[in-house]
């Protein structure tokens, strides 16, 4: 295992370096450290409005979800193994020819990512807070305890995701049952208040039992034991359920490509590529995963706003226009899925360019996401009794979605998940997304108090976004025109 | 001793029968060629014999080890070159061979890595990432990885694919040496001219069934070559190209 892990770490590092450069890649932790430092020195001001316990609760939920989002090794590993015949192959697939078990390579991948994320993200963030300590007057012990608790939340998320995704490879029914049970747990807390959030996320219980939230209490050791035990159980379950043979299938399907092809006449020269995208989306089962990965952050967003309004009793005016902007920004997650549907090597053998494939994926994105996002905004408007705001909310939704996905496609081409490890691109992406998002959010809060000013401001932001989206669209050709397929 | 025993082996994928009651034996020290048209079940058979996938029914043994339950022991004992599979993209050629050697607990590893990089004239490319090597070079690395632990039994699926004529000849000569040393080789290939020169026995699969199993010598005795036998059993397609 040590050799396998060492080699896997090398493999992962080199893969990321090929998307940027050694210098840029190693700058990522510095960037995170800097952000964490800035957050750290702003904390005393932030604490005047929100209690430290509430802030930490939100951070724990965020880091748990981060762990969940990066830990689906069951899906990832299976994809790598099944795609080993293409241009790229990875150590995870070597059990097919070597006396190694898939259990060991999947565990290797889990440990590799653990080391990777801890050293690239969590430790630099910790260091940033340590550096901010003298300015913000934090106690080092408190920072260490916060780091430990957050590390446990991350481990909890990543190991739960590992286990659940492996269960999926064995039984979709069992997977659905676990997901529904988890949603039930969250509803039990959020809607009915049957128990505290620490029952779902034990590291939060540990956090609540130690400084800076409170003095060390009796509950802290119990929660730390519960956290570590549950993490160990998740990893053991995942490891024991890893399949040792990947047979592939000889599934037969009805020919649907011609039907899609004829249905997409409007797409003109993109017709065949778009038809293929839809066949891929449906047959790979990605539609379900995409919907889930889009809906999950929306549910989290709804939970957060509910928590701010009701849990923290802060009267922030979250309205349908705010949600519409947010939904548009989340659309980028779907584009990421679309670029990971199939190997793209073979495009080198047909007369298509990278920009053409990007644009076909963008079209697919709009056709897939428009229904989910429109339904969500309509539902929010109906629940909040704000259908009067739909005339503004729907254009905001479509414009932000188009702007965000074009910006992502322009910046990252056909490899969004990999390029976002490049700090240079990450900074640009952050600026491109956070600034207009912030503008729309602040303006949306003023719709009731200063409607004319807010609506004019929102329309102005939307106009700028449309202009930028147009520039990004044109830029795709220039930036990716001579690029090869990843 | 019997190196490979296959009895009534059947493999189905979602209702599609890839292998249908296949039975045969290979005596240790024999160079066996497995041939058949595309989709005949050759690669499926090789994957079952190397413990990569289980059979739907029937029995398969390699070196006395049951393929379904002793997959790990089989992989330890044999060398495998799969069909069109690449070495891990982000390891260098040397690192991959080092990794394979360590997993296989090969003695004197550095020397053996050098030997195989030298054999395939890849010494200058030892530090190149596998993804940046040509297809032929990647195939040479896969062959080196299969040869590095000097296995008793080799499973080779299209070993000559992407190799230039010089290295086709070099690998052919090496395999002949192995044959003369009494090693067992199970090779799937479409290159019948090379196979005719290497194999002692052949098995022809067609639509998942064994269409023929015989020795090259008996074939030669009746004045037939492998290509004629293949076309006779499998049937050539005389239709004009579209």
Account of the protein in words:
The complex is a heterodimer of chains A (486) and B (242). Chain A has 486 residues and is mainly alpha-helical. Chain A has two domains: 1-250, no CATH class; 255-486, no CATH class. Helix content of chain A is 76%, strand content 0%. In chain A, helix 19 packs antiparallel against helix 20 (451-480). Chain A is globular and about 65 Å long. Chain B is built from nine helices and ten strands. Chain B has a six-stranded mixed sheet, with helices on both faces. In chain B, strands 2-1-4-5 form a four-stranded antiparallel sheet, covered by helices on one side. In chain B, a hairpin with a 2-residue loop joins strand 1 (2-13) and strand 2. In chain B, helix 3 (93-103) runs parallel beside helix 5 (135-147). The termini of chain B are far apart. The relative contact order of chain B is 0.17. The interface between A and B is large, with 35 and 36 residues.
